Amino acid sequence: MAIFPPQTRIWWNEPVAKAELVWISVAFLWGLIMFFMMIYWHIYGQQNLSTQVGRIDPAVFEQRTNEFAEKFRIRDEGDTGVPVVRPPPGGDAYMLARTFDWWPVLELEKGKPYKLHISSVDLQHGFSLLPINMNIQVHPGLEHIITITPTEAGTYGVVCNEYCGLGHHQMTGRIYVVEPGQGG
Amino acid sequence: MSTVATESDYIGKLAAKFRTCPATGLKVDLAAERLIKANAVAAVVFLAIGGTFGLLVALTRWPAVHLLSSDMFYLVLTAHGLDVLLLWIIFFEMAILYFASAVILSSRIAAPRWGWVGFALMVVGGLMTNVAVLQGDSSVMFTSYVPLKAQPHFYLGLILFAVGALIGCFIFLGTLVIAKEEKTYEGSIPLVTFGALTACIIAVFTIASGAIILVPTFLWSVGYIANIDTLTYKLVWWAMGHSSQQINVSAHVAVWYLIAAVTVGAKPLSEKVSRTAFLLYIFFLQLASAHHLLVEPGLSSEWKIVNTSYMMYLAVLGSMIHGMTVPGSIEAAQRKSGYTRGVFEWLRKAPWGNPAFAGMFLSLVMFGFLGGITGVILGTEQLNIIMHNTLYVPGHFHATVVTGTTLAFMAVTYLVVPLIFQRQIIWPKLARLQPYLFGFGAAGISLFMMGAGTLGVARRHWDISFADALLPYGYPPMASLMMGLNGLSAILAATGGALYVLITVGSILFGKKVDETNAVASLGPMPKKVVREAVTKYGNAGTWHLPGTYVLVGIFFTTFILYYFVNWKYLSELWPMQ
Amino acid sequence: MAEKPKPESAAAPLERIPFMQRLLDNPFLLLFIGVVVPTVIYILWGVMEITQIPLAK
Looking at the 3D structure of chain B, how many domains does it have? Predict the structure, then answer.
């Protein structure tokens, strides 16, 4: 029994049953498949997290986001006072996380790649793009540049999914995706 | 030095008082027994507190009920994590370490006084952190990611608790040394003790990591350190936070083997294979701390892939081995007892009316299917993008920590109460029901949270209707349904949990005394044809025929492969990103 | 460390215990491995990468 010492003095040399060996080999191979699947996806897959990251002073990131919003602002989001910003396709887009909003609202064209810069000016936040359920962690002082290509037009929500204080559940943002040449 | 050591050894040997367990024939050191009792009782107390907080969390996240205010919700959620994830489980693990060393090896326990020092530190630390949270200024969640700041005594309490637990680990190791020197056993330590050793080793790494990060964080909270790097904090914190769950895995696998041995007389199919599986845990299980850093900026894909895969899934291999050898050893034992008809007679006629066995088997199945598979998928570098920080994550770990660890610990309690507290279980009929209530409730919690998570519902979130948000977002109506079902499951699980606390406390206080006449009967119903002496060798290559286990493992493996690739398909539909 | 249990019959010479069994019977060696492996692969490698994050342009 498992609560008594092994019955034989040398248990290491006992033969292992064939069925058990088969299972161990199958499980080992499955592990290798899962391991190489991640590497395969880096080579052939379309969805890999960017490793383009740099340390940045949060104040500098905030200033760049402000400049970006001023330059490409096309309208305000309803009566909220939040600007809707439409960066040129293929260009840089900024989104800033702070307690408790994602700023500004972006308008992107479907099928065009954008270099999205995200960072936080205070705490850690979680960038969760819904309903497609894309989730990326955001740190203060680290600028993360991710190239994304929206595939479908529509209104997307950005929710914070890293707890960031008592107003955490109010922290939201928005991204519009429009057909090329439309919107504005 | 050496003379002093010998002298105190001698005194220790003289001072130790033993009784002989009437059910197992093991010699029980009374000092160890008192420590086991104290730690087990503390564990159950914190389970009762933390479980109540958990119910409040689930009822708040049920949109139709939405019980607590936002401030209270975040406070209670922080306390829930601390009390059950840390205090309940580590206190119980201390009891398991003392049991698996001193009792199973029939040895005296090393330095019992230090055991009490450790226990006192853990109690004081646990209370201090609870007080900090309940005062309301430390709603920083269990993870307390900097620069979110809690009160200094929040961190100090955790540090004291960790030091206490570390003392317990060293007492376990010391007891192994004493048992070997005083030759209380022959050959190698039993498999259950080896599993406990695995847990202890992982615990040492866990606690050391905790100290490395919590001590500077404490100094930061009182103002001695200006700044703590957020990513470094997270990296080292998870070496504690995730590894502490790996202590649980090792401990509850050891408990599975223990319960299988006591209730159906199972013995390991192969010492070599089972111990090698634990060895894979010792080597690689702790690397999985990287599961929490897969969508972080600033760490390379190489680091992520090597760590998140536990070095090519070698620790998962360990779990998949246990997943076969535990049910396999039960099947072999049952077949020895005469349950040989068909593929599944051994399982149908297993002692399902014994809460220890029922809880253990449910724990095994649910941990494998709900916790294990989802854990590997969450821990796949790219797949994590569609799950990170959604409710899928707590869904997953409620399967591992609640249906896996907690249910296994509850199950073993039905043996610990008669064996260590020497009391019979009161209300045996309710006790029979308890693992099912709790197990299915917790499985529901896990499934419905994972369901909500795949719809993108965020974890640790007070209001999924976004009523106060400037730019509200609407989840699909299915999300609310999932959260409602989660609430109902939580009520079911809480009923099972409350029953567990009542039965345990009631039995300790009012249960009938256990003596030679009723010792074995007190362990609950056992399979009828068990002939203990007839458990001859069946662990060798010639005697392996376990068709039921092959079928179970086959179903598990098919589910695993299908669900794994389904998630890759979901990922491929996401916006291209690089 | 690896102390041999007493032989049951003095006639049969004791076979040497295999290396892997001696490893598995040595808790302190296992403790060493279990602490060093994750410290190097997870913590040290990870902290090295964090310190090498470049400044943003």
Answer: 1
Strands A172-178 and A154-160 turn out to be: antiparallel
Q: Which residues, at least 6 apart from B331, have a Cβ–Cβ distance to it below 8 Å? A: B346, B347, B546, B548, B549
The domain A53-178 having CATH identifier 2.60.40.420: the answer here is: yes
pLDDT digits (tens, 9 = 90+) for B424-478: 999 999 999 999 999 999 999 999 999 999 999 999 999 999 998 999 999 999 9
Q: What are the structural domain ranges in chain A?
A: 53-178
C-alpha to C-alpha distance for B387 and B378, rounded to whole angstroms: 7
Residue type present at position B8: S
Q: Are the C-beta atoms of residues A143 and A117 closer than 8 Å to each other?
A: yes
CATH number, position B172: 1.20.210.10
B:296-315 residues touching chain A, CB 8 A cutoff? 296-298, 300-301, 305, 309, 312-314
User: pTM (2 decimals)?
Assistant: 0.94
Q: Is A115 on the interface with B (CB under 8 A)?
A: no
pLDDT at B535: 39
* Bond preceding residue B154 cis, omega within 30 of 0: no
Query: Do B380 and A161 lie within an 8 Å CB cutoff?
Result: no
Residue B508 structural domain: 29-463+481-572
**What is residue B352's predicted lDDT score, i.e. its pLDDT?**
95
For residue B390, which of B497, B321, B483 has the smallest C-alpha distance?
Answer: B483
Ramachandran angles phi, psi of A135, nearest 5°? -125, 125
**Is B19 within a domain?**
no
Region B529-540: mean pLDDT is 46
The amino acid at B389: N
What residues of chain B lie within 8 A of the CB of A27, using their CB? 316-317, 320-321
Residue B14 lies in a domain: no
The answer to whether residue B357 sits within a structural domain is: yes
- Minimal-distance CA residue of chain B relative to C32: B201
Token pair belonging to B416: 């610990």
Residue type, B575: W
> What mean pLDDT do residues B84-89 have?
95
Nearest Cα neighbor of B442 from B325, B543, B363 is B363
Distance CA B199, CA B253 (A): 10
Pairing of strands A125-130, A134-138: antiparallel
* Long-range contacts from B302-305, C-beta under 8 angstroms, 24+ separation: B303/C45, B303/C46, B303/C49, B304/B381, B305/A35, B305/A38, B305/A39, B305/B381
ipTM: 0.96
What is residue B484's predicted lDDT score, i.e. its pLDDT? 97
The pair phi, psi for residue B406, each rounded to 5°, is -60, -45
